[in-house]
Each structure stands twice: as C-alpha cells, then as structure tokens.
Design goal:
This protein is mostly helical. The protein has one domain.
Length: 194
Amino acid sequence: MARKWPTALGLLAGLLALAAGLDHGGTALEQWHLAARWTARVGFPIFLATYLASSLYAVYPAPWSRALARDRRWWGLGFAASHTVHLVALIIATRLDPEPRTLLSLIPGSVAYAFMVLMALTSNRAAMRALGRNWKRLHSTGIHVIWLIFMLAYAKRIPAPETRAIGTVMTALALSALMVRLLARRNRGVPAYG
C-alpha cells in the first residue's frame, strides 16, 4: 500500500500545476493555457521516471534504482493521473482559444492519450495474464509513442526564441532518456524489471 505514493504524487503535482496556472494568468484564456503548459511540464518528469525505471536498474543497479523499477507501475499510474489533469486543462484552453486547432494537430496527442488510458487500465496482474505477450507489446509501444509525442512537442519549441530554453532542456532530457534505455539493452546480463 505504501508503494502507491507515486500515483498520489502525480495527481497532486497535476492539481498544483493546474492551480498555479489558473492563479497566474491575466485572462481566462491565459490561465487555462498556463495550466495546460504547466501540467504538461510536471507530468514529464513523472513520465521519465516510468520510462527509465527498469533501464536505470539495468545500467546502475542500486537500492534506489531497484525501488524505482519495482514501483514502475505506480509511477506510470502517477503519470496517468497527472496527465489526466493536463487533459482537462488542455480541453478547456482549446475551447476558449479563438483560433481552433485543426483536427490533424489533435491526432498525435489523441494517440498518446489512447495508449496512456489503455496502459493505465491494464496495469494489473489480471490484465497481464489475460493479454499474455500482447501486454508487453501494448506497454512497450505505448510508452515509446508517449515519449515520441513529448520529444516532438518540446523539440518544436526550440526554433522560437521565447520557448527555446524550455524546448532545448526538455528535448535533451527526452533524448538522454532514450540513450539510457539503449545503453540498458547492452547490459542484458543485469536483471531488469519488466
């Protein structure tokens, strides 16, 4: 029971980011745009903890990396909780925006959310047994799709001067996380969780 705290942390982080955005914007549109932006930013480190959990243990076996790998499910559910708050903020910001988004621009995020929901719903032993090998395929594909959407979302901010710093830092973090996962594949002799 005590190991479920990453899920509560994800929800709390999302709600605090939402509240901060709503407190700092001048207009309702600015408030909800800030809330959407900040909830995405607090969800990203929680996602990275999930994305890197077993890989960090494979590359650097230590008590902290073992605990992270052991609790990966709860970190993943924490990300799902946090990013559900982000989705609410994003939907409201999009509805308030006078310039509607194109259907095409909504497809990548919608695919990532579909995977997030499927992964959250199947993050239990009963689903693992029922899906068999397909469980691992779903979760492996899903986590990489979400990683790609985050990476592309931050990389597209690099060209604009006002968002270059955050885009560069977050893109570098995403690419570094991928490198850790690739390095972990070379360390197959070290037991990894999942």
